[in-house]
Amino acid sequence: MSEKKQGCFIVFEGIDGAGKTTQIRLLEERLHQEGRRVYTTAEPTESVTGGLLRDALGGVSRRSACEMAALFVLDRTFHNVNPVNGIQKMLADGYDVISDRYYYSSMAYQGSETDFDWVRDMNLNCPEIRRPDLCIFLDLTPEESMARIDGSRATHEIYENRERLEAVRKQFFRAFEALGDKEQVCIVNAYRPIEQIHEEIAGLVLDHIKAKEENQ
Ligand code: TYD
């Protein structure tokens, strides 16, 4: 019986303005060139729960931090197990799966608003939430991010936003520290020319895929 090779599960994380969308698109193209099949996805998902999350993120409804954390766990579980195009199904079918955000975002955003350990444990202890093979964290300082997003906002607005971005970035590092060496997290300097960042990411991912396939 011929065994189908499982794909690689890669997650992109970063603060706003880090360039995830661009880098995900470039990686997808590169993996296609290498003859691989790629499935790109994102959180919140298109599920009913994803809709509830978007309403809350957009200010249409109000939710507490614990409600948000729990809804993200529900959405993420669905993201993993849904039988049509869930992460598990796509990996088993041999696709490399690239997700724009995952549980590191819950630890960074919800973890800063409610009990960090609870958020971490709910995600890591859920048997239906898979651990990624690789997390790429696109790192840049809030100042660098703000310079990219918009250089022309009112001073106080920039300040408020800067504070928030700084807090979220700090929480991401807290999450990576809490995960220790159980997870493969690559911190990539995202304040460089797009092509240069892409080359570094492509190198990391292709090395990882090679190593994984040698072990399969
Ligand atoms: P989105 O519009 O996709 O933003 P971005 O392009 O920056 O990824 O919205 C995702 C938002 O959801 C973003 O502000 C971070 C937030 N989020 C959480 O707070 N917790 C989570 O677990 C996830 C996955 C996202």
SSE topology:
Layout: E1 9-14, H1 20-33, E2 38-42, H2 48-57, H3 65-81, H4 87-92, E3 96-100, H5 103-109, H6 116-124, E4 134-139, H7 142-149, H8 155-179, E5 185-189, H9 194-215
Helix pairs in contact: 1-9, 2-3, 5-6, 5-8
Thymidine-5'-diphosphate is lined by residues 16, 43, 57, 72, 100-101, 105-106, 109-110.
Explained architecture:
With 216 residues, this protein is an alpha/beta fold. Helix content is 55%, strand content 12%. The chain has 9 helices and 5 strands; from the N terminus they run βαβαααβααβααβα. A 5-stranded parallel beta sheet has the order 2-3-1-4-5, sandwiched between helices. The protein binds thymidine-5'-diphosphate (TYD). The site of thymidine-5'-diphosphate has 10 residues, from helix 5.
The DSSP helix count reads: 9
Helix content: 40-55%
Q: Which fold name is given in CATH as the topology?
A: Rossmann fold
**Total DSSP E strands:** 5
Instruction: Write out the distinct hetero groups bound to the structure.
Output: thymidine-5'-diphosphate
Kindly state the mean pLDDT as a whole number?
92
Uncertain segments: none
Please tell me the total number of domains: 1
User: Taking Cα atoms only, what radius of gyration do you get, to the nearest Å?
Assistant: 17 Å
